[in-house]
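Reviewers of the previous submission asked for a worked example of the structure-prediction workflow described in the proposal, so we include one complete record here. The input consisted solely of the amino acid sequence. No template or homolog information was supplied to the procedure at any stage.
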Amino acid sequence: MAHLSVFYCVYMKASSIKTVTAMEPQVMIRILGILLALNRQQALRIARTLHGFLRFLRESGRWSGSHFSYLQAHTVLQAVAEYDLQHASGATG
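From that input alone, the workflow returned the following structure tokens.
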């Protein structure tokens, strides 16, 4: 929960969407990029937590954003997770 609190605190200041049940994917990408540059491990933890939260919102019917914005956010967070797995396994690409 602390990871989501930190992310959403920054997100709310940078986004025109002022709810935790929708996302502007471009804002999310900018914030994750900054977090990755500052502290990769912490950023990856935040991305994993955020990905789980977005899935929960969608599966529970609480996602209030568009279907397209959900797909964009999900795709970005999935790519971060795949990058993390590749990096952890020592794969290069």
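The chain has a mean pLDDT of 87. We consider this example representative of the routine output the project will generate in years two and three.
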